[in-house]
Structures
1.
Amino acid sequence: MTFRAAVITFPGSNCDRDMAAGLEAVSGTPALRVWHGDADLPDRLDLIALPGGFSYGDYLRSGAMAANSPIMRAVIAAAHRGVPVLGVCNGFQMLTEARLLPGALLRNAGQRFICRTVALTVENTASLFTAGYAQGETIRIPVAHHDGNYYADGETLDRLEGEGRVAFRYAEAVNGSARNIAGVLSANGRVLGLMPHPERAIEPAAVAALGGTDGRRLFESILSALASA
Amino acid sequence: MQVRVLVRLKPGVLDPQGRAVHHALEGMGFAGVEGVRVGRLIELDVADGTDHAAITAMCEKLLANTVIESFTIDTAGAD
């Protein structure tokens, strides 16, 4: 099976190469690279990845400009067809701005940019992104963001929790996120947005530098789900 | 035609920036400040006769994120 993943680069993306390298490290297949100004995505995609960074300089709101760029119309259409979409950090912000995921990412409660490896609790192991983890497992993944403070109204938060759509929760106070939410899934479980960077915790070199390789299983989960589909 | 769009965080949405500004004002010795909320003013120069519905659509689709923000459109007061 050839894994067809597309990584989209926006002006100001800075984790697009890391995402592509991570996908290739796990799948053995180079990721396809797509520019934000393109109108169309490659066909037969197994995954669309929206990388971290500071698209459009975070103008207006983080992710707001990217969410309205030409390629996002194709991403939204693909998501509605069920193509898996992974948004990391700025990619998560884009997914909320594009309304593919509920809520919004506000400025960190402490006002500071946070760049460190944090502990997360895996809350959902039923999705194609998280099936490789154990329920309640604690994993360590780096974060690097200024606007990672997840907000949604109480009713939405209750619904997300009730439907098992909280994928990951911070196991420690990090950025003021409502109910310590670090990652959320769409209603069909095929869109995941998270602030931590699993693509930075894949290769053995990440153990010494960034604290582990716990991000690897997220990508392995996607591959396993495709192989068994 | 000048249009001013005022975008504000909805009540209840935490505003760390406003809180930091509030803290700074207190630190500077300004007494009696009971709260600070930071919003955004966007000035649009649009064709005369642009209807209100079009401006509202701009606000809902891009200028404001209605999950966390409210907006008001001012066409009369703009100069």
Note: The CA atoms of residues 149 and 177 of chain A lie 4 Å apart.
2.
Amino acid sequence: MNVLEFTFLVWTGSLLAGFLGALTGLGGGVVLVPLLTLVFKVDFRYAIGASLVSVIATSSGSAAAYVKEGFSNIRIGMFLEIATTLGALLGAYLTAKVPASALAVILGVVLIYSAFVARRTRPRTETPDPPDPLATKLKMNGTFPDTSGVRSYNVYRVPAGLGVMFGAGAISGLLGIGSGALKVVAMDQAMKIPFKVSTTTSNFMIGVTAAASAGIYLSRGYIDPGLAMPVMIGVLIGSLMGTRVLVKTQTKLLRLVFSGVIVLLGLQMVVKGLQGGF
Amino acid sequence: MRTRQVDEEKLENLIANLLRLGVVLSACVVMSGAVMYLGFHPWRRVNYRTFQGEPDELKTAHGVVQYAFSGNANGIMQLGLLLLIATPIARVISSAVAFALEGDKMYLLFTLLVLAVLLYSLFGSFLIV
């Protein structure tokens, strides 16, 4: 393929990934690495470099909107970023030591997992527990706009949340993805932060986490401008379009279909990885 | 309490605008590099099947800036990507300033820790590569 054809096809694929990712709330970043490696036969390291860059673009772009609406909690985000950035450094360091085929298997498992985790929600407890002393000391309890005005919430199990966040950061640095699904698990399931606050704060954190491994990727030569350019521009435009359409459409079926696509791509990564095909 | 809420709102607006500006700016730089890249050698074959790594001038912040200002299309695109990577860093710096102004020492410390990790990755990571 020549430069023009390759750029156009990668751009179109990334646009679609970004669009569907934003529309379904599953994130477009997860499908980029399989798309680039399986369809466009790009080397795994170039693929994760381009994917990581586009993750920063979508995170910063969409976080801007959510911060303004008052959903994301900047204190929670900043505190947990200590764990995610350190994890990301470790992940980015390890990615050069682990064979690409093993990384592909891990990515496949993460893909399948994230397709399922997005469908599960924590059962709401009617009577709120007393505030957690550590979370109170860290000034994490907050409020967010709700249909019935302003709702307040308490945060729990901070150490557990930190632990999962470190893991999420490591996965992000290892595979060049945002690992938003894992971040939401840490906040929603472990720390009992309301789902809407968890997802938006996670989105807010993804950019900072990715920036922590991006420097290392850059110095290793994983970030190729000719490849990252169409990926970043495509995903950015696609996700902006996706968020615009989001409010108007019924996304349940689309979400199911896209989850199916993610699971299939995940399985393919696992199978090809086990065969040593990377 | 009331002033604190106003401050937080201002901080949140500042951060939102900063993030948006960073993304728009970097996308513009990447696009202008892309026009040159696509215009100069549209028919060149691409090969990303095997990993060769990038040339040295595209691997450090300093090198990318120099390469871009010499008018190289790859350098300009990479500079745009570098600006994108710098956006979250600018966001963390602005949070640090805001926490300092608010007198929140605990969160200032947390923010500086995050900033240290980010700066280490961008400027010092060659130490472990």
Note: Residues 3-119+132-141+150-273 of chain A form one domain.
